[in-house]
Amino acid sequence: MTMIDTHSHLFLEEFADDLPEVMERARQAGVSHIFMPNIDSTTLQPMLDVCRRYEGYCFPMIGLHPTSVRAEDYEDELAVVARELASGRKYVAIGEIGMDLYWDQTFQKEQEDALRRQLDWALDYDLPVVIHCREAFAPIYKIMEDYRSTHLCGVFHSFTGTADEAQRILEFPGFYLGVNGVVTFKKSHLPELLSSVPLDRILLETDSPYLTPVPYRGRRNESAYVQYVLLKVAEACRCTPDEVAKQTSESALKVFGMLK
């Protein structure tokens, strides 16, 4: 049984002391691919270094995270994304992008502008997008409506929204819901919600080092723990773990352009 971790930040300093061991545990757990979303210009080189070190196992994305969008320098940050896209370097997606109004709404307009421009680039370069959405579903969905007739595709990373929001995302045929350790939390509503979501519209992720699943909640997350997400999704969807592993892996390879 093999699984794909579609969202993991193993290039962050939390893994500086034991990255080889983290990677080996992921392999032993059956993780066949790890997709790595960028955050901003400060994380670009560390991410590329890890993907180069583990070429063929770790795959980079390029994008500007919404919490890194600030009025004074977001244009410069977007210029880095544009430069990388034009460089010919192989990126599997534009991400992680989106909007985050949980901590601060000061730069909402700038976040909306950054999102639109990166969605346009996704179409230009025929790449999927990985969308970060925190307390921002309404403005993100309003923007996405303008792309309904395009071939835009991707994943709503770390989906924790309502059943209605899930159905509205799934109206876009090329979009998937990214499910991570939150699904294992005691008070999570996701197991009930996922029971009505087609299995072929779900992707597995960890968001390492964050959102560690039960039974390791409270510790640093890592890609090997995607197995606990898989087991909970299998329970919620009334499928076998093998079925979930097979379908979510096939969907991940499809959306990230590896089945073309």
Automatic annotation (TrEMBL):
<dbReference type="GO" id="GO:0005829">
    <property type="term" value="C:cytosol"/>
</dbReference>
<dbReference type="GO" id="GO:0046872">
    <property type="term" value="F:metal ion binding"/>
</dbReference>
<comment type="similarity">
    <text>Belongs to the metallo-dependent hydrolases superfamily. TatD-type hydrolase family.</text>
</comment>
<feature type="binding site">
    <location>
        <position position="9"/>
    </location>
    <ligand>
        <name>a divalent metal cation 1</name>
    </ligand>
</feature>
<dbReference type="InterPro" id="IPR015991">
    <property type="entry name" value="TatD/YcfH-like"/>
</dbReference>
<feature type="binding site">
    <location>
        <position position="132"/>
    </location>
    <ligand>
        <name>a divalent metal cation 2</name>
    </ligand>
</feature>
<keyword id="KW-0378">Hydrolase</keyword>
<dbReference type="Pfam" id="PF01026">
    <property type="entry name" value="TatD_DNase"/>
</dbReference>
<dbReference type="InterPro" id="IPR001130">
    <property type="entry name" value="TatD-like"/>
</dbReference>
<feature type="binding site">
    <location>
        <position position="207"/>
    </location>
    <ligand>
        <name>a divalent metal cation 1</name>
    </ligand>
</feature>
<feature type="binding site">
    <location>
        <position position="7"/>
    </location>
    <ligand>
        <name>a divalent metal cation 1</name>
    </ligand>
</feature>
<feature type="binding site">
    <location>
        <position position="96"/>
    </location>
    <ligand>
        <name>a divalent metal cation 1</name>
    </ligand>
</feature>
<feature type="binding site">
    <location>
        <position position="157"/>
    </location>
    <ligand>
        <name>a divalent metal cation 2</name>
    </ligand>
</feature>
<keyword id="KW-0479">Metal-binding</keyword>
<dbReference type="GO" id="GO:0016788">
    <property type="term" value="F:hydrolase activity, acting on ester bonds"/>
</dbReference>
<dbReference type="InterPro" id="IPR018228">
    <property type="entry name" value="DNase_TatD-rel_CS"/>
</dbReference>
<protein>
    <submittedName>
        <fullName>TatD family hydrolase</fullName>
    </submittedName>
</protein>
<dbReference type="InterPro" id="IPR032466">
    <property type="entry name" value="Metal_Hydrolase"/>
</dbReference>
<dbReference type="GO" id="GO:0004536">
    <property type="term" value="F:DNA nuclease activity"/>
</dbReference>
